[in-house]
């Protein structure tokens, strides 16, 4: 299969880090890890517990204790550390605090951190970037977890120089080892629903929006769910892997107020995101000029703190 050459400046962009993927004091440690991306992924996966896995205990995906004995997890620890371990450096600091050996396949359950897919993706991006491998986090929906629906999810793409292509991977579980048959360290085209294409397919009536679920406890679905992934993916492609509670303040909790003009702008963004390398220059231009796509709301910052910065 022939692949178009990726421009050098694009690959250089995905070697750069942002706030979340900056390796800091852990850069040399990341460089000491094994060369194989799959082996790195297994080390990361062996160091984390997904909050759903912790909640379900030794059942469902963990019925054979693939992720460890959840009864050993301390009762006084946070059941999800997404809110406090938001950067790769923060995750690594906590992992070393809990076990000074760092990444190890034998890490005890009580010494793992409880984080979700976005955090695994950020950690993988940080590691591969530190090792000189262009890498980017991506947001969208995974149709391989439950039949009939596609759940919000974050993955990675790294550039394989020998094959001249982006390789799509999902390091957020031992999926292949558990019989999912995903090919998780080289996911085939079409097995993951990227945010841009998903948005356009729903808008164009090609797929049913109810299939796409944002698992936030409210079971937000369809365009209201995909709009989140759209901005996660846009920011991640610009090396700004925003966490779940961050959204541009002009849309945060305001989906019903969006105008037709807003939707046309989002359609245009989705089209660009569907082919991020071909549209790289235009995405960068939007990043630097369309302020309302970048000014974030957050739990501690409200609309009125940002209003003067949007125009």
Overview of this protein structure:
The chain has 311 residues and is α+β, with helices and mostly antiparallel strands. The protein is 33% helix and 13% strand. It contains eleven helices and ten strands. The strands form three sheets. Strands 3, 4, 5, 6, 7 and 8 form a six-stranded mixed sheet that branches. The chain has a two-stranded parallel ribbon with strand order 1-2. It has a two-stranded antiparallel sheet with strand order 9-10. β4 and β5 form a beta hairpin. It is globular, with a radius of gyration of 19 Å. The termini are far apart. The mean pLDDT is 94.
SSE arrangement:
Layout: H1 8-13, H2 27-31, H3 37-45, E1 48-49, H4 51-56, H5 88-98, E2 113-114, H6 117-130, E3 135-142, E4 150-160, E5 165-169, E6 193-194, H7 195-203, E7 212-214, E8 220-221, H8 223-237, E9 247-248, H9 260-274, H10 280-289, E10 296-297, H11 303-306
Parallel strand pairs: 1-2, 4-7
Antiparallel strand pairs: 3-4, 3-6, 4-5, 7-8, 9-10
Helix pairs in contact: 3-6, 7-8, 7-9, 8-9
Q: Structural class, from secondary structure content?
A: alpha+beta
Average per-residue pLDDT, rounded, comes to 94
Q: Using DSSP, what is the number of strands?
A: 10
Q: Roughly how many Å is the radius of gyration?
A: 19 Å
Largest sheet geometry = 6 strands, mixed
String of helices and strands: HHHEHHEHEEEEHEEHEHHEH
* General form: globular
Query: In DSSP terms, counting alpha (H) and pi (I) runs of 4 or more, how many helices?
Result: 11
Beta-strand percent range: 5-15%
Low-confidence stretches: none
């Amino acid at each position: 299969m022939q692949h178009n050459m990726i421009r050098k400046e694009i690959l250089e962009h995905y070697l750069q880090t942002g706030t979340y993927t900056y390796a800091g004091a852990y850069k040399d440690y990341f460089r000491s890890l094994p060369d194989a991306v799959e082996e790195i992924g297994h080390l990361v996966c062996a160091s984390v517990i997904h909050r759903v896995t912790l909640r379900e205990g030794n059942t469902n995906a963990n019925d054979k204790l693939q992720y460890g004995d959840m009864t050993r997890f301390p009762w006084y620890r946070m059941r999800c550390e997404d809110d406090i371990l938001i950067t790769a450096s923060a995750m690594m600091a906590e992992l070393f605090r809990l076990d000074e050996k760092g990444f190890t396949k034998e890490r005890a359950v009580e010494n793992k951190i409880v984080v979700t897919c976005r955090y695994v993706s950020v950690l993988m991006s940080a590691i591969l970037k530190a090792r000189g491998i262009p890498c980017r986090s991506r947001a969208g929906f995974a149709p391989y977890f439950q039949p009939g629906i596609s759940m919000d999810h974050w993955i990675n793409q790294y550039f394989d120089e020998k094959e001249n292509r982006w390789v799509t991977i999902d390091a957020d579980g031992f999926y292949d080892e558990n019989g999912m048959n995903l090919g998780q360290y080289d996911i085939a085209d079409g097995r993951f629903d990227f945010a841009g294409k998903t948005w356009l397919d729903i808008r164009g009536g090609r797929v049913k929006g109810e299939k796409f679920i944002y698992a936030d406890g409210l079971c937000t679905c369809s365009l209201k769910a995909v709009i989140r992934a759209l901005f996660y993916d846009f920011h991640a492609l610009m090396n700004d892997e925003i966490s779940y509670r961050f959204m541009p303040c002009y849309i945060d909790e305001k989906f019903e107020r969006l105008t037709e003009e807003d939707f046309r702008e989002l359609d245009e963004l989705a089209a660009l995101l569907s082919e991020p390398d071909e549209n790289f220059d235009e995405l960068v231009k939007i990043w630097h000029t369309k302020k309302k796509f970048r000014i974030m709301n957050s739990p501690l910052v409200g609309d009125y703190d940002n209003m003067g910065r949007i125009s």
